[in-house]
Amino acid sequence: MRVLVLGTAMVDETMAAAVFPHAGATVIAGPAERDLGGKGANQALVMRRAGLDVRLVAPVGGDTAGEWVAGELAGEGLDPADLVPVEVPTDRSLIFVGPGGENAIASIVAAAECIDERLARESVELLGPGDLLVMQGNLTLAATRAALAAARAAGALTLLNPSPARPDIASLVPLADCLVVNEGEARLLGGRDDALQAAEALRASGAGLVVVTLGARGALALDADGSVAVEAEPVRPVDTTGAGDVFTAIFAACRYGRAMPIEASLRAAGRAAALAVTRHGTRAAFPSRTEIAAIIGADR
Ligand code: ATP
């Protein structure tokens, strides 16, 4: 199975903050850390570490940030030749992490918005039956729709993690063989407060398998055969940034890369994500190849 991740690769600047800034306020933060980020890059590199054959198509500017992103991706075993050069600066996120591990993020997605429908369709041309397209919510709605539809037409499976969620992304739900959403996204797109009811509504709108992540309460999944829920690992969180990306990537690696049952895939994804929340940073917190191999092996 080949996996194509079509999404973002950017520079994350993370700062610890005792309180989050609000309008009119200045807060003292620090220390600051710089790392590779972007939901596309995060998910692609975790799937690569899980041993999948992954390509990442993501836009980068012709600046030093873009060169740095390319070098970091190469170091993760992802081919920088798949990156798409664009005429605007490489995207960036500013991430504030609070004392309880919670975060507030501001992202610039000007590069992401350069991926148009034609480029989106062209980039999925390498996919065929049995392959997997993985997308998130950072590209334009039109580009995301075009890529998902083209992948479907080529016989590939589609996984959509519509984050950050906007109400109009609901129209893409029928194009997802697998939809991975957090609780807020489930509520927004499913129109129900209860996670299971929201998942049922999303299934009724056409998603094949719906996975809802519930933070420290674990995750649930719903497909044509019914629902299954797993608890989260009991850990002390220090930084939850990227937990959803690690969860999505390991779930995909287990369910689609190794044909593991849904429940075992949820458990492995939850273990990997729990490990990430016990460490600071984004990529710096992600589980290593060795850790992922041990987690997946334990759940087979
Ligand atoms: P983020 O935006 O912070 O990356 P998210 O909102 O997309 O995360 P969450 O539901 O918060 O997604 O977390 C994804 C998964 O990570 C959860 O289903 C759970 O398995 C794991 N996780 C998150 N927070 C915790 C925690 N405090 N303790 C244990 N596991 C956690």
TrEMBL record:
Database matches in Pfam families: PfkB
Chief site of localization: cytoplasm
Record-listed K(+) binding positions: 239, 241, 276, 279, 281
Listed GO MF terms: ribokinase activity
Occurrences of domain Carbohydrate kinase PfkB (ranges): 5-287
Binding site for substrate: 10-12, 38-42, 245
Binding-site list for ATP: 182, 213-218, 244-245
Cell compartment(s), UniProt: Cytoplasm
The protein's Enzyme Commission number: 2.7.1.229
Alphabetical keyword list: ATP-binding, Carbohydrate metabolism, Cytoplasm, Kinase, Magnesium, Metal-binding, Nucleotide-binding, Potassium, Transferase
Active site per UniProt: 245 (proton acceptor)
Site feature Important for substrate specificity, where: 10
Necessary cofactors: Mg(2+)
Reaction equations catalysed: 2-deoxy-D-ribose + ATP = 2-deoxy-D-ribose 5-phosphate + ADP + H(+)
Stored PANTHER family: RIBOKINASE (PTHR10584:SF166), SUGAR KINASE (PTHR10584)
Protein family per UniProt: Belongs to the carbohydrate kinase PfkB family. Deoxyribokinase subfamily.
HAMAP family: Ribokinase
Described function: Catalyzes the ATP-dependent phosphorylation of 2-deoxy-D-ribose to 2-deoxy-D-ribose 5-phosphate (dRib-5P), allowing the use of deoxyribose as the sole carbon source.
Assembly: Homodimer.
Name of the featured protein: Deoxyribokinase
Organism of origin: Kaistia geumhonensis
Lineage, broadest ranks: Bacteria, Pseudomonadati, Pseudomonadota, Alphaproteobacteria, Hyphomicrobiales
